[in-house]
Request: fold
Amino acid sequence: MSFLIPIIKNLLKMKKMLVWTLGIIGFLMVAAFVLVKIYSQPKPKGDVSQGDDLARRVESSINKAAWDSVNVIQFTYRGENKFTYDKPKNRVVVEWDKNRVFLDLDSITGTAYFKDKKLEGKKALKLVKQSWAYWCNDSFWAFAPFKLFDDGTTRSKVVDEAGTESLLIEYKSGGVTPGDAYQWILDANGRPEAFKMWVKIIPLKGLGATWGDWIQLKDGAWISTSHKLSKFTFFLTNVKEADSLSEMGYGEEFP
Reply:
């Protein structure tokens, strides 16, 4: 039976290591929960009756009227996902890695390719769903200030103790995560400088992100091309505007 002694000793060591590991994991989970509770901010309450006027001021600062006349806009998000958006027809070409999806945003259907080979069945459906998720997230960081009056949104003016005004936008429906809310921090002209977020996918409520490096499109609309979130900064690059998809190298009709 002596041969069992080293085996038993090893099992006891493994048990002790497992206990320590579980203890550390438990401690980290409790610590994370406490930190979220400490640093999360309550969502502010605003005056809905004054929200629309403030939202229109924001639209004026970024030339929403010019944005309404844009036909096709292209950009790359974080150097990874490329989008070519046909605004009048509400459709977009989404490209990442070696994938390309021609996505109809009204029906959330599309045609998917991998290495220029057309996919069918579950593989195609998977890429279409993935392209829709990419579009909902990435385009928001490009065009959110132009979506203040989208269906399913409410607008409220928030005034803090110092008398500073900000705009609270709540999304009751639409996109991938309906129910999210954003408090826009504005400069003296009403242009967004940052926002705070109350979103389902981020446990820390009231987390802030900047909106900077604004550029003007040829039609006159303004787009923010850099965002700092915590210690990370991510960019919109290769922002281009065109009158048609063919100018961007695509056919006018989707496959």
About this structure: The first strand starts at residue 72 and ends at 77. The CA atoms of residues 213 and 252 lie 32 Å apart. The first helix runs from residue 4 to 39. Confidence is low (pLDDT under 50) at residues 18-39.
